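Page 42, continued from yesterday. The earlier attempt failed because a stray header line got pasted into the input along with the sequence. Redoing it now with the clean sequence only.
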Amino acid sequence: MSDSWGIRGWLDELRRRDLYRQRRVVESPQSAALEVGGRSLLNFCSNDYLGLAGDPRVAEAFAAGAREWGTGSGASHLICGHTRAHHELEEALAAFTGRPRALLFSTGYAANMGAINGLLTAGDAVFEDRLNHASLLDGGWISRARFEWFEHADLADLAKRLSESGDCRRRMVVSDGTFSMDGDRCALRETVALAREHDAWVMIDDAHGLGVHGSRGCGLVDPAHFGTDEVPVLVGTLGKAFGTFGAFVAGSEELVELLIQKARSYVFTTALPSAVAVATLASLRIAMDEEWRRERLAELVDRFRTGAVSLGLELLDSSSPIQPLVVGDPGRTVALSRALEEAGCLVTAIRPPTVPEGTSRLRITLTAGHSPADVDRLLDALASATRL
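This time it went through. Structure tokens are written below.
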């Protein structure tokens, strides 16, 4: 095959700049430790915050769901793929988030794309935090709405842009709840107040907050403080703290009905296997009932940050399970990641375009499955690696 498109040269350039990415083959279930390349490595790069991805109760629920429903859903929700298992999970997620309805999507990417494109079009405006997840940015870009991004967490910049959008029909402010690469949070109360002042809707992707924060893990958009009127569009994923797969959008009856009609990534996508819905219902109940998981997670985050400070490491300001150590140079970041792996700790090097140029980092994540000894081992490995 000829290389008239220059693909080989493009790949060589990525290697030269230390931006080439490679997959690992994991040989064990997700947990605090993984088998990789014949070695057991402490896993500090997973989003399995509550340690439920390998929980035997969730696995048994999945197996029972497969026995009852089979392995595939056969079609989209609107054809013949929407089962009682899906419906029960949607009702449980609506109750969990304190909203009238919830709508399942096959992935978080599909949920974000579908929600934005189902609600906005030409003549509207969407305002997005510059560090939003790619799915939120892509959804805004392809919606045909006027796209404005504001500087990260800069409410003054957002206010200025909202005030200059008077000719737009509808406005929506879109933000991550917890930012996946920095670990900091949206200033939710202030964002809601600012949007209301400018007659704009708010859409929050609480992918990294659900299960981790709030009463019984209900997330940053706690229904005790933020109702459907304050945050009309709430997105959550199921493959992080809940340890399964898929996503949902929660909101009013009218919102969900509109997305059923208009969200292309819902209408034209095969439904999740029903067994996944059964497993998620089990993990949701565990996440709500076992408060010790959130308590342990908070203790481990505090232990890690205290230890990192004592080593002279400068972490970003984050109280979430996401603890980024910004290195800057991608080559140096890769070298640190390899040194940690040699010491038995798996921490992936995060480089552009996932993060802005000059901010390559080690994205360290903690889970309820880790022990204090695991965190201490990571700190020892970091102390050695950063001296190299």
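Notes: The chain has a mean pLDDT of 97.
Reminder to self: strip header lines before submitting.
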